[in-house]
Design a protein that fits this description.
Among the domains are: about 50 residues; about 200 residues, Orthogonal Bundle (Penicillin Amidohydrolase, domain 1), CATH 1.10.439.10; about 120 residues, Aminohydrolase, alpha-helical knob region (Penicillin amidase (Acylase) alpha subunit, N-terminal domain, Orthogonal Bundle). The chain contains 21 helices and 30 strands. The protein is α+β, with helices and mostly antiparallel strands and about 725 residues long. The longest helix has 28 residues.
């Protein structure tokens, strides 16, 4: 480790002082002693200066009282190893089960219920491609993946008693397992998932096809909020960033919060369990977050069959065929064999077939194995130029990038591997694409310079709530007419309108205000439509509708725990059809004030009466408090909830599923939140809603949920002094 410039200047100054003060006197008495004296002083000073700036001689994990690991590593390889260890300590059972699914052998390990998962993973070619990706890594980064796997294996070996016996069958983990899991998460869950395509007919596929936000769990969507605020709109004249992904609260979607410090990096943020690098992060100079963008990275092609072949450009092509024998564990522990035949065309693997037609799936990103190294280098970047140099590799197949830095720059990038298509608009590519002519078969992606992007807009703010890039700020900074019509759709939903309203109406936003806005449960949809619904109910409705109108008029239009009227309004929203309910549909020339009005007031009132009957029957009153119905329940906690469905225009998104006794429990939504101000030092608050561990008996499986219920974030501890003051455990390697 070389000395820094400051250390070198200091050393030279001290040496000059000692030479003038002592060395000349020594030289006059004994020239040989001068040489020995000078060398000894120089050696001592260099060692002293190195000790101030050198990395630690060992690697350690400092666990704070919220179960957040702070890794201080002597080198990068040790950092990856420690991160593997940390993830095992916090999520060992889950991590190994996820890796087993990514291998396509979960049914062999754990039984019949994983059979469809294995069929999907093998049909998509994940395990074999992971081996290929592993070989394509640079030797250095391949070593980092091996180190991460080593940390996993070492933890499992030393703490076998803390890992479920059922998942130990997966051990040892290899570097290629990490890449298989990465593919399953990114390419075959976020970009496209088995619920959308596996084994469906043409008609059902058309119903399932959704590229606005990929449906990743029944009843929920992968979503997110992201803000970047420039110094011109910040109360402290410092840029700020808000990271706020919304994912399911289980399985491969769990976030893991951590700090990684090693030579060349000191980054804090979060990643999904099993991913060996931070995917949303910040350092002293910059930070970024991701939102799920309105991105189309997969297409379904209909092929015309001729015997066991297909037609392309008036020629007959044979399918490529691979045969697998899946092992399925039975209740008695024996294994049964089940064959799987995977056929592929030039378009991709076949996911549906009838007598005369087949549907093939084409997915972007399968030839780009470098996203982990790209994320790693994004976290190591110190300015916008370095950050964009990493982004320009285009290894990350999707996700909007929202960025802010200490120099005051903010950026929105509609990131993704967008296919270069020869025809059609966004809607066209959502259907089944004719696969019998090569002009519909894309083979290239748009380069970085083609992607919608804005840096430092005049407005001083950027937002994205899974809306298209055209609505990231106002006045409009990215114009849709400058891009191919298939790049992204055109719409702006109520959550995006609520997001824009909060940013646009506050000329100077403080750090505390940003956090307050983040927790806003106000329903933009209610603000838009109640001035029509309430009078309609009073003039056209029965006695129950009039009482419902009275409740809605007194309601604060929020989904706080004590809000009375929110349950009734949300129930009414479920009764209506958003596509036909409004007299003024959404219009591109009025993106922030439409849709509006009731297309059929009588129908809307009838829906309100139906909702009122259901609410009164279930809870005995129309004005039941939101928090009495929607609960945060886990282990011994049972707390009133706040937040709700983003379709209602709520910025504080929580998706609920019905439970017993008429209650609803959270299944997705606000999962990780980080609010960052790029001051000196950086100011940051964060929360992982469900806690930073899923291991049985861990106190960190639920310890952040009370803060979540109170709409609070916790301080981010980054310095060693802060961490030591809140130290729970230390692990030295």
């Amino acid at each position: 480790m070389f000395m820094s410039r400051v250390q070198l200047i200091l050393t030279r100054s001290i040496l000059r002082y000692y030479y003038r003060r002592y060395a000349l006197k020594v030289f006059k008495r004994n020239p040989n002693r001068l040489l020995a004296f000078t060398l000894s002083v120089l050696f001592a000073l260099i060692i002293g200066c190195q000790s101030l700036g050198s990395p630690p001689r060992s690697t350690e994990i400092l666990w704070d009282t919220y179960g957040i690991p702070h890794i201080y590593a002597k080198n990068t390889q040790s950092a990856f190893e420690a991160f593997g260890w940390a993830q095992m300590q916090s999520h060992g059972n889950l991590l190994l089960r996820l890796y087993g699914q990514a291998r396509g052998r979960a049914a062999e390990y754990w039984g019949e219920k994983y059979l469809e998962s294995d069929q999907w993973v093998l049909t998509m070619g994940v395990p074999s491609r992971a081996r290929s990706w592993y070989e394509q890594q640079s030797p250095t980064f391949r070593g980092y993946l091996d180190a991460f796997a080593k940390g996993i294996n070492n933890y499992a070996k030393e703490h076998a008693d803390l890992i479920d016996d059922s998942v130990e069958v997966l051990l040892p983990v290899k570097g290629e397992d990490v890449l298989a899991h990465l593919q399953r998460v990114l390419n075959f869950t976020f970009i496209v998932n088995p619920q959308q395509v596996a084994g469906v007919s043409k008609e059902s596929m058309l119903r399932l096809r959704s590229a606005l936000t990929p449906s990743v769990a029944e009843g929920s969507k992968a979503g997110s909020n992201g803000w970047a605020i420039a110094p011109s709109r910040s109360a402290t004249s410092k840029a700020m960033l808000l990271a706020n992904p919304h994912l399911p609260w289980s399985d491969l979607f769990l976030w893991y919060e951590a700090q990684v410090t090693a030579p060349g990096i000191d980054a804090y943020g979060a990643t999904l369990v099993g991913i060996p690098v931070l995917t949303i992060a910040f350092n002293d100079n910059l930070g970024w977050t991701h939102t799920v963008n309105t991105f189309d990275g997969w297409d379904a092609y209909e092929l015309k069959l001729v015997d066991n072949s297909y037609r392309l450009d008036n020629k007959i092509r044979r399918f490529e065929t691979k045969n697998f024998s899946l092992k399925v564990k039975q209740n008695d522990g024996t294994l049964r064999e089940q064959p799987l035949v995977v056929k592929s065309s030039v378009h991709g693997p076949i996911v549906s077939q009838t007598d005369d037609k087949a549907v093939a799936l084409r997915v972007v990103g399968l030839d780009r194995p470098g996203v982990l190294e790209q994320w790693w280098d994004m976290a190591r970047s110190q300015n916008l130029k370095q950050f964009e140099t990493a982004l320009q590799r285009l290894q990350l197949p999707m996700f909007t990038v929202m960025y802010a830095d200490r120099e005051g720059h903010i950026m929105h990038l509609f990131n993704g591997q967008v296919p270069v298509r020869q025809q059609g608009d966004f809607k066209y590519w959502q259907g089944i694409i004719p696969g019998d002519a090569s002009q519909t078969l894309w083979t290239k992606i748009h380069p970085y310079q083609d992607l919608p992007r804005v840096v430092d807009p005049p407005s001083g703010w950027l937002q994205n709530t899974n809306d298209p890039p055209w609505t990231t700020t106002f006045p409009t900074a990215i114009k849709s007419e400058n891009y191919p019509p298939y790049m992204a759709p055109r719409f702006m939903d109520f959550r995006a309108q609520r997001s824009t309203r909060m940013l646009d109406e506050d000329e100077k936003i403080s750090f505390d205000e940003m956090i307050e806005y983040k927790h806003s449960t106000r329903m933009e949809f209610a603000d838009r439509i109640l001035d029509d619904l309430i009078p309609a109910a009073r003039s056209l409705g029965n006695e129950l509708a009039i009482r419902a109108a009275d409740v809605l008029e007194r309601w604060d239009r929020q989904a706080n725990a004590d809000s009375r009227g929110a349950v009734l309004f949300a129930s009414w929203a479920e009764e209506i059809d958003f596509d036909t309910a409004f007299s003024k549909p959404w219009a591109e020339n009025s993106p922030r004030t439409t849709p509006d009005g009731l297309a059929n007031p009588q129908s809307a009132v009838t829906a309100l009466e139906a909702a009122a009957v259901k609410v009164e029957k279930a809870y005995g009153q129309l004005n039941i408090a939101w928090g009495e119905v929607f609960r945060l329940k886990h282990e011994n906690l049972d707390l009133p909830a706040n937040g709700g469905d983003g379709d209602l225009g709520i910025f504080r998104v929580v998706n609920f599923a019905p439970s017993e006794k008429g209650h609803f429990l959270p299944v997705a939504g606000d999962s990780y939140v980080a609010a960052i101000e790029f001051s000196k030092p950086v100011k940051a608050m964060a929360l992982t809603s469900y806690g930073n561990s899923s291991q049985p008996g861990s106190p960190h499986a639920v310890d952040q949920l009370p803060l979540f219920a109170r709409k609070q974030l916790r301080p981010v501890w980054r310095s060693q002094d802060e961490i030591t003051a809140h130290l729970e455990e230390r692990k030295v390697f």
